# Entry
Amino acid sequence: MKILNAQNSLRQYLEQVSDKLITIVSASASETESLVETLVENGNKVDLLVGTINSFSSPEFIDFCVRDTDANVTLHVDFRAQNSVHWKLILVEPDVVILGSANFTEIGLSLTRDTCTVIQDAALYADYQARVAAIKAIDGVMLGEDNPAFDEALEEYRQSHRRMQASLARGAQYLDGESWLGDETNQSIPLFIWYSDHSDDSEEKAEAFLRASSDGVDWDDVREFFTYECAEGVLPYEEGDMVLTARCNGTHIGFYTFDRILYRNGTYYIYSYRKKRYTQPFKLEEAKDRLKESIPEWYEEMRTSLNRHDINSVVR
# Structure
């Protein structure tokens, strides 16, 4: 038995394994696509079971395992939300059991804040394999594959994950982007990139629609408004979202709360109100130069959110 630590991390340990079956059970999983690729390149078969407590597992990670890997990677997702699996367990055939507090995430596997123990015990290995098989048989635990039932469950989970991330962006404020990345529950931030300034006609319509909505907000109380053309019901934002906004040339970068959203004739009118105190997930000053470089590309890609990799690229 041995204890792994930040100097001899769980990721480093796994990268040395070859030609084995590796079974991974984790309450949440994110940002570890590259490790899955490495494990497969080393001749391993990877069998994953991930939970959905608090919607912390990344839909992008789930998509990757289902759509972008071969038969050497299998994935079960426990869609039972707060009742889903909360284990942190890795089994390496024929007899290695790894237990600890580390989720299958970039931060978790680094062991900068977690711990785990490597135990070599064939009986314990077999016992845990049987217990993992039993969890996979529970209703609500689904094998990731292209079928309508799994796709429907994943889409519902994707919306839950989006709402959770939007809630986190609204409710927390970090000193800087580095601190935001230090909390692995933060996985995405809504992004809105606009093309041109408002016309007089657009502003007149926005003011008229707001007055007609009878929500008691005067036009002078509007800090900024945005427009988004799309079919009704497919807007990728919701009222209350904290959104990183910018013009497509990388200027006018800032966080805005989408306080009021109205739909009229093929256009969503989005209003941000004036407040005594403006919260934001983290301060942007040090990241603005790198954001300015990335925003035109994100605009061309029609991005509506940023993930941890995107944030990492502009704050580190």
